[in-house]
Amino acid sequence: MSDVDKVEDVAEGLPVALAAPASAVVVVGPGVEGTESIAVWHVSPQGMPVGAWIYPMESLLASRDEARRLLTLVERRSITAVVPSELDEVLDRATKAADIDAEKWWTRQLFSPLQCFADIVDRRAVYEETVAAAKCELKNVADLEWSRDFAAAHLVDFDALRSQSEVRPVIGSTAVGSDALTVVGVLRWLVRQWAETEGVKRRRYVRDAHGEPEPLPPSWLASVQAGMTTRLPL
Questions:
Q1: What are the E-state strand segments in the chain?
Q2: How distant, in Å, are the alpha carbons of 32, 74, 129, 135, 152 from that of 65?
Q3: pLDDT tens across 61-75, in order?
């Protein structure tokens, strides 16, 4: 069995909140024939792509119905992008085009892949401290062995994270779709790393100290929970 297979087994054992809506990857860029477009890819809690849409920006912002259709794809979901903060302008324009009076409704629903990676690094450090303490009190406590060691990783942007994940940039029929699929690939990798991290809670003393396994990195999970409370008058 490969390391990836082992990680997949851990992922399947986690109590992932299957009732939660898929997260939305939103990317703006060149679409068909190079026209500015917005791509939305839905990603399951397991990191799998489960739906995709691409809209030409000009027609989207010129049509109340089209703008509302876009908002239905992201309204109740956690939302991310290469740089999530850059979504403020496009979501604001889409909300106004949809004739919805709800300023920055998406703020608590945004999450950053970079922050998710930081969540993983931080959580592993906590578990390593717990294991080190347990070795002083319990017999036969084994050191933690990760498939990848991120302790020395200092990532400054999404491309550095993509390189760390070894996810290759996707080459597709449109640039905007390719960029969205690249983000999806990185998210799936993050889910696997998180599953391996939370898999340490199979050790009872770790679970007793830190609770049951969590389905997603804290910042991502918080955005999922925030999104589930959003209701726009669509």
A1: 23-30, 36-43, 49-56, 79-80
A2: 21, 15, 53, 61, 49
A3: 999 999 999 999 999
